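From the shared-data thread, chain only:
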Amino acid sequence: MEKILLVIGDAGEVMDTMGPLYRLGEDYEVVVAAPEKRVYHLVQHEREPGWDITVERPAYHLAATIAFRDVAPEQYVGLVLPGGRAPEYLRYDDDLIRITKHFFQEEKPVASICHGIEIIAAADMIRGREVTTIPKCRYDAEFRGATYLEQSVVVSDRLVCCQGKKDISPWMKTFTDVLEHYLASRPVRQSQIH
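Structure, as tokens:
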């Protein structure tokens, strides 16, 4: 079974994380990666009447099965970057930046939702691409040379971006289509010939 790398950290958005975990887990082995191999605290973001920003509440916990430093990215066919506040901190992790650059340099599928775009921008892998994200992360994309589109889902080569949790279904459908096309177009490796 092909492997997908799902990135998490404390204060990762629960729906942005669990949606891909369960959907991709139907067809792939989803490996959860974080700064350390431990349990992380996911959060739920909701709009409250009278608030200009989202309110953050504790949500589920999720264990990382591998630390970023131990990830061999060549073993994975896809990368998922959920949102929440986690990417704001994760983008400073040199090993995560190394992993992210690998996926773009090897033209592998990458899925980004909400604040996940901050990791791609920090890796400087967004320049010249059309992307989407939540409006408050628009400048993160534009300052790194991307073109922001006000759309639910945007595909740029093998990068599949979406704005937020309301877009999880079309985002995951599009990402799985990109993954399937990528896998079908790869050259057959010697290890696959019996």
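The first helix runs from residue 14 to 24.
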